[in-house]
Amino acid sequence: MPATVLRPYATTTMCHLIEMLAALGIYWKEFDRKRERYRAEGNGFMVIGEKVTDLGLMFTFSIYGRSRFEANRVIPVDQVKELCFGYVSTIYSVLLDQRRLRFPEDDPENLAFLQLATREEISQTLIRIGCNNNAVRAFQDAGKHTSHLFPVSFEILGMLSRTFHIKNSMFTHIPNPTSDRWDKQSVSLVKVMEAYEDLVPTSLPGARRNPVIIEKIKKHVDQILAFNKDESVTEKMCTLKALHEAIDDCDQILTAKEPSGTVTPFAEQLGIKVHESEVQKKRREMVQDVLRSHIQEVLRLLNDGEDRSSDTQSLHAEWSPATPHTRQDGQPRVAPIGFEDMHEASPDERQHKFLEVYFHVIREKVIPRAARSTDRRTSLVGAPAGYGFRRAGTGRTQASSMRGIERTSSPPPPMPAPRLQTSVENIPLGPMANGRPSMSSRPGSAVSDAYSLASEQPRPRLEAALYEQEVSHDDVWCTLIFRMICWLMLHDFNKLDVQLSKSELLGSRMPVYIS
Fold first, then answer.
1. Of 392 and 218, which is predicted with more confidence?
2. d(CA 479, CA 267)
3. pTM above 0.85, yes or no
4. What is the pLDDT of residue 420?
5. Rounded to whole angstroms, how far apart are CA atoms 42 and 134?
6. How many structural domains does the chain have?
7. Spatial separation of the C-alpha atoms in residues 111 and 280, rounded to whole Å
8. Where is this region: Disordered (predicted)?
9. In Å, what is the CA distance from 470 to each residue of 257, 346, 415?
10. Does the residue 60 lie in any domain?
11. Is residue 224 part of a domain?
12. Could you tell me which residue, 351 or 452, shows the higher pLDDT?
């Protein structure tokens, strides 16, 4: 060993060092691989790294203050390790191998992973999402605005990132995968949720809504706000649980997957191959259409506030802007035209002004554009059997808004058939695959008698599960906004934690030394 190296020393790898420092609450201040200069501080610790001749990278670990592992402790779940490198696994991802020796997929049509470590990586992520050049340049040009009430990168994070929170636990902190700083003092997410509660009942003229989804969201909002009124530990635990359950329901809507459809960490070891069904693929494409249009419109308003009518002429007549809505006190509400009112508002009103812009300006342009994107893709790919049939009593706008929604090989009924909660509900009623009658169809059998008895009872009208619901573009947009609010309330970041570019070190086994 070189004479400058003092014992005792330890050896590890570069990726494991980065992961360990994140778990200890230590944040990188300098990470320069060209000059081999590394410095990290936080939670009473300091780590300095430099290159030692004839040895390699040597990191010096020292304690300079008081450390605390309480509410600031990082959530003890394996998936947060990817965040340390700027990778974010989304609700559409399959877990990486546990050793992380393989890089995430780089499929432009797949939303499995996001890269948010730098503005350049965010711009590449927007390209994979399908955003236009104006949205991409907003992150490539340092002079462009990419923040409103909070940075847009956290908005994308809240809409798509998987949930890292452990149910029935109080851990909320995770490493910051973005190059932006999260300051929870500048925004009240509770007030954002209250504004969402006020605005979500507002319907968009010409847009179809699923009342089951909207009512489910309203129930979650009421429950979250009811628990959040008390600052006790019990109420906080209930709030976190309510937020987690709300996000789980949002994931059903956005992925068309049942709750038990998640992949376990041992899926690859067991040889389980997860294939996306046609229904789930169409749902993901619909979400991508809405997300792309939403990001483009938000960035346009942030950077082109004076020219707000550039795309008005491209809208169809049936998607004309909504008439002025009314406040709860019955007075007419003047629809905002940009984020200027939000910037001028007081801290108590800022959150409501923010969502007013979202619901009365952005939403009115996002939904028709997303619907046209779905129509265009469907016309190019080819529609499945029964696709072109219109529903009775629907107009051209409603029929077009249905396009891009998942279809089976035959036209399904308007709503999935209700499931009977009986002990024989999973028993087939018709002939089996081998041609023999099922047990329930055999006269005189105990199962047949039980089913006949159940059939005679009045059947309660049960709504289908959320992942089985038909979803419109407006439902997707409202769900994405609600999920973003819930996700940001459920997860927290240290104000000093800002991501520095090191995504290529994910899974790196380059040896390093600690003295």
1. 218
2. 29
3. no
4. 32
5. 37
6. 1
7. 13
8. 306-334, 385-418
9. 13, 40, 8
10. yes
11. no
12. 351
